[in-house]
């Protein structure tokens, strides 16, 4: 369905909401609903002139949602859809106006969008094209809430119903591929991303520029997780430039922040990790004097350079955070704060990281993003295990919470990470057999997701050594 770029006054005119029409509506209960919808849309128009400030867009959105509620009560679902597609005018000069449904996702109101779409779908009897559009919105809302299993189910259903190579099919298939990669289903997700990019190339890229950038971002995400950091950094750079060239200002935060994440993950050279693994293996066997001497000789000299690498990663993440503030994207600030916390842990300042992690968790809970919530719980668990802290009871509660959520939302990569983090916990609890069992289970979980190569296997062993007998400051 094409989005109607209408503001509130244009919308009132298109819907024919005027006194003559409203007076003609019967029964009276239905007339009252139309009158209420008209009043809310009229108020949205008049309030724009009064509230030329940061909250004017939010007020518009709330008034549009009230209008949708009353139109649904009047059983005018076609009009409700037109309001859902209508434009919210941004008070920020470099942020484009966007349809109400996109605005709700941008502002972390995925749950509100989901409820609104469900209400319209429940009443809509026909208009299959409208149903496809609404189902697509429902899947996007589910994605924003971390419920990618529901999103995948909807996208697959759309692909079954729509003609291959149609706009609806291509969008649903592309978003399906993105979900699969985000869930850690790389063996099916990555080939689907590559096929979706071919569909877009064959269809002509102009209508699908945003979708293409999302697919490239998904491919970059996968590449980063396989440890191909240089390639991932370049891919995220391609995504940034593509969006910048096409004026997608609100989409610049993701690739910029991910370049910071890539720099964080690649801050410690592979050869240095081999040295750390050697030192920690000696510690594991109780050879403390020898391992400390070896650490001072092999590892200590590079620590300053590694910290500089982390500083560069932190600078990129802070640039992304500043961009969030510039365009008032509170949503993205939460996950950037989450990744900033990882950098601070890497720099040996886990106490300072806790505040960032708790702030990110609070925001994720407010918008009901279960994936984000699980990420924060694992991070808090690691913080409570970090050097000189060892708050084991709190760490265990957080790590189990992360694992339960990730299993419930079928986040396979996240589940493997949670199991690995629990192996660290059981080591510090003195349950070494259980710790090794969880280590083996984590390795097997990475194998099942198709992520277990030599780089990953080496990384898992190094991570285990760092978080059991090492300095608890490297996070892969």
Describe it.
By secondary structure, the protein is mostly helical. The chain is 76% helix and 1% strand. Strands 1-2 form a two-stranded antiparallel ribbon. Helix 18 runs parallel beside helix 20 and helix 20 runs antiparallel to helix 21. The longest helix has 24 residues. The mean pLDDT is 91.
Keywords for this entry:
two-stranded antiparallel ribbon, elongated, single chain, 24 helices, mainly alpha, 476 residues
Average pLDDT over all residues: 91
| Morphology | elongated
Q: What structural category do the secondary elements indicate?
A: mainly alpha
What is the CA–CA distance across the termini? 43 Å
Element-by-element helix/strand order = HHHHHEEHHHHHHHHHHHHHHHHHHH
Strand order of the largest sheet: 1-2
Assembly state of the chains shown: single chain
How does the major sheet shape up? 2 strands, antiparallel
